[in-house]
């Protein structure tokens, strides 16, 4: 069986996840996405992600050929992200901190 193609969104929070996933023998870091272009390039080079699979726009990232995605962005930005990935038939894990206020807990 081949390797699973992983994508990570939110490299400031998800940077450690990239290292952990890359260490797994059946995982290939296939795409990275963050709003910080310098961070995307730096991590892409470090994990040998092809230049064409480095994204700063989530709307482009969702079209990458991936088996699963980890979203590690702030809560305010993750409301529509999982649904866009599910529409692409991609497994999605959302990693975000717990809410800090009671009002936001109900939406979490």
List the SSEs and their pairings:
Layout: E1 4-9, H1 11-22, E2 27-33, H2 37-46, E3 54-55, H3 58-61, E4 68-71, H4 81-87, E5 91-94, H5 102-105
Parallel strand pairs: 1-2, 1-4, 2-3, 4-5
Structure write-up:
With about 110 residues, the protein is α/β, with parallel strands linked by helices. It has one domain: Rossmann fold (3-Layer(aba) Sandwich). Helices cover about 35% and strands about 20% of the residues. It has a 5-stranded parallel β-sheet, sandwiched between helices. It starts with a strand and ends with a helix. The C terminus is likely disordered.
Q: What's a quick, concise take on this entry?
A:
The protein is α/β, with parallel strands linked by helices and 108 residues long. It contains five helices and five strands, in the order E-H-E-H-E-H-E-H-E-H. The protein has a single domain, classed as 3-Layer(aba) Sandwich (Rossmann fold).
Strand order of the largest sheet: 3-2-1-4-5
Report Rg. 14 Å
Q: Judging by the overall fold, what is the CATH architecture?
A: 3-Layer(aba) Sandwich
Q: Tell me the series of helices and strands, N- to C-terminal.
A: EHEHEHEHEH
Q: What is the highest CATH level, the class?
A: Alpha Beta
Shape: globular
**How would you state the average pLDDT, rounded?**
78
Question: Would you identify the CATH H-level superfamily?
Answer: NAD(P)-binding Rossmann-like Domain
List the uncertain runs.
102-108
**If helices are DSSP runs of H or I spanning 4 or more residues, what is the number of helices?**
5
- How far apart are the first and last residues' alpha carbons, in Å? 36 Å
User: Which fold does the CATH topology refer to?
Assistant: Rossmann fold
Portion of residues within helices: 25-40%
Structural class: alpha/beta
- Number of E-type strands: 5
Number of domains: 1
Main sheet: strands, sense, barrel: 5 strands, parallel
Q: What proportion of the residues form beta strands (DSSP E)? A: 15-25%
